[in-house]
Amino acid sequence: MNNNFSVITTSYNDESNVEAYLDAIINQTLPPSEIVIVDGGSKDNTCQIIKDYIPKTSIPILLVEDGRLNIAEAFNIGIRKAHSGYILISCMGNKFSLTMCEDLFNKIKETDADSSYGLLFGID
Fold this sequence. Notes:
- The protein is of the alpha/beta class.
- The protein is 32% helix and 23% strand.
- It is built from four helices and six strands, in the order βαβαβαββαβ.
- It has helices at residues 18-26, 46-53, 71-81, 100-111; strands spanning 5-11, 34-39, 61-65, 86-91, 94-95, 121-122.
- β2, α2 and β3 form a beta-alpha-beta unit.
């Protein structure tokens, strides 16, 4: 399985979680081909932290700042912006293993499924 998948996430006042979240996605054993982050109108430094992070990785990160959005609106925007064959949806406050993406796609390959899901843990 190649990395033909996009990670879609939402953010809202996540300055304390954003770098750890991006590190966890980028350091996956099977990293995504792109990360789409839709911010729901953060009032803290979340967006600036993301902008500062973008040049530190070779994985394209698209930050969409679209005013105050609920989580469903933000995920729908992120899905429309994605350019990959598969979409992995998670939230900025999720914690997961560094093999999560590889595990999900191995399960899809093993079972010839169209989708898969995995276990996530909240950070706070």
